[in-house]
Amino acid sequence: MRKITRNFYYLLVMMLLVFIWSCSGNSSDVTESEEKQTEEVAPEEERASPLRTVSGEIGDKRITVQYGSPGIKGRVIWGDLVPYGEVWRTGANEATFISLEEDVLVEGEPLKAGKYSMFTIPRENEPWTVIFNSEWDLEHGHFQYKEENDVLRVTVSPEWASSDQEWLSIAVVPEGLEVKWEKLILPVSIE
């Protein structure tokens, strides 16, 4: 009896795994209604830094950004967890990427339609560098970053808020992108 019960559980687990595998779709199978959502959280809620996707329009240009959203969690962020003067993936885990359906101007500089990873070089008491790189699908963020694949680098002056924002967020706003984390507000002009 015990052997039958154990075999039954093994069979049940295997059937469940096959069902889950067969139901998982290709990430390119996105319906039109899903695209219209402004923010999505990946079903992997147990991630320490949840995967987020935001979409919006700047003028009539549609932009989508995907990033890992780390929390402060009592840590010193700028100059410690995220060192000054070094390339940062502008999020957590895999590289943050941006998808542009049309050509845009970023801080007045042209950037063609396409997908790009987005990196940042934070600096203490100086403007920051925001980088758009042609290698957008990097599993390990800045560890795979190669400067020779940079398509555009712009400088942006950070702003500082008086209160903390626990979780990193990147929003598509009418003026472009707005990166917020801890006391940082990094506005990136896009038109």
Automatic annotation (TrEMBL):
Region (Disordered): 31-50
Stored InterPro entries: DUF2911
Name by which UniProt lists this protein: DUF2911 domain-containing protein
Comp. bias intervals (Basic and acidic residues): 33-49
